[in-house]
Write a structure and sequence with these properties.
The chain has about 250 residues and is an alpha/beta fold. The chain contains eleven helices and eight strands. The chain has one domain: TIM Barrel, CATH 3.20.20. Strands 1-2-3-4-5-6-7-8 form an eight-stranded parallel beta barrel, surrounded by seven helices.
Length: about 250
C-alpha cells in the first residue's frame, strides 16, 4: 500500500509522540489540545503498556488518528497476527522492525490486506523501522554490523519495499538515499526532529530540523518534546507544519 502525500495539508504530516503524562486523562488532554494541528498521535510502548488498547480507542473517540509505534519484531506468524490485531484496533499506521526479515514483513502485509478486503475497511499504513535515530555508526560497529547507519538503513529499506511495506521509519540523514533508491511513492517517516532550541533529556543522536528533513525526502515527521515543552504547543506544531511547507518548496 502506498499513500499519495503530495496534496496533504502540511499539518497532517506532523505526528505527535503521545508517550506523556502520569495518567491516561493527561495523555488524552494532548489530543484535545493538538487535534487539527497534527495529523497523527503516536502511541508507543510506554503508553501502550501503561494504558493498553483503551488509549487507542479513546483517541479515536476524541477524533484523533493513531500511529501505533510498537516495532513488532518476532517470527513471521507472530508478527502477522499482531499486525492483524493492529488492524482490528483501527489504527491509521503501525510499524514493524525490518530486522525481522522479508518473510515477516511480507506475511504481515498480506494478512492486513486480506482483512481489509474482507471487511471493506481501509488498510493502515505499514512501516518498517530501519535504524533507530539513537544509534550511530559506532553503535552499529559495536553490535557487529559491517556497515554504517546509512548503508544499513538503505539495505533494510530495500528489503522492506520488496516485501510490500508502504514505507520506512528512518533518520532524515538516511532519507535522501532511501528516496533515490526506493522512489517517490515510498513513504519515509522521520523521528528525531528538533528545532533550534535544546531539548531536555535528549537521547537522540542523528537529528535534524523539520525543513531539512523534508527537503532530504521525509514525508511525515514525528515530534515529541519540542512540542510538549513549548510555551504554546499548538503554535509550535503550526510552526513545524510551516517548516514542512518550506522544505517541500525546496525539494528538487
Amino acid at each position: 500500500m502506498t499513500m499519495n502525500t503530495l496534496n496533504r495539508p502540511t499539518w497532517e504530516r506532523v505526528i505527535f509522540a503521545l508517550d506523556v503524562g502520569d495518567g491516561i486523562e493527561e495523555a488524552l488532554s494532548w489530543v484535545d489540545r493538538l487535534k487539527g494541528h497534527v495529523g497523527l498521535f503516536k502511541v508507543g510502548k510506554e503508553s501502550f503498556v501503561r494504558y493498553g488498547p483503551e488509549i487507542v480507542r479513546l483517541i479515536h473517540v476524541r477524533g484523533g488518528k493513531v500511529f501505533l509505534d510498537l516495532k513488532f519484531h518476532d517470527i513471521p506468524n507472530t508478527v502477522a497476527r499482531a499486525g492483524e490485531a493492529a488492524f482490528a484496533l483501527g489504527v491509521a499506521m503501525f510499524n514493524l522492525h525490518a530486522l525481522g526479515g522479508g518473510q515477516m514483513m511480507q506475511e504481515t502485509v498480506k494478512g492486513v490486506q486480506r482483512l481489509a478486503e474482507q471487511s471493506g475497511k481501509p488498510e493502515p499504513i505499514i512501516l518498517a523501522v530501519t535504524v533507530l535515530t539513537s544509534l550511530d555508526d559506532e553503535d552499529l560497529r559495536r553490535m557487529g554490523f559491517s556497515r554504517g547507519a546509512r548503508e544499513t538503513a538503505l539495505t533494510l529499506a530495500r528489503i522492506a519495499q520488496d516485501a510490500g511495506v508502504a514505507g520506512v521509519v528512518a533518520s532524515a540523514e538516511d532519507a535522501a538515499a532511501i528516496r533515490l533508491a526506493c522512489g517517490s511513492e515510498f513513504l519515509i517517516v522521520t523521528p528525531g526532529i528538533r528545532g533550534g532550541k535544546a531539548v531536555a533529556g535528549d537521547d537522540q543522536k542523528r537529528i535534524v530540523g523539520p525543513c531539512d528533513a523534508v527537503q532530504y525526502g521525509s514525508d511525515f515527521l514525528v515530534v515529541g518534546r519540542p512540542i510538549r515543552q513549548a510555551a504554546d504547543p499548538a503554535g509550535e506544531a503550526d510552526q513545524i507544519a510551516g517548516e514542512i511547507a518550506r522544505g517541500l518548496s525546496l525539494r528538487g
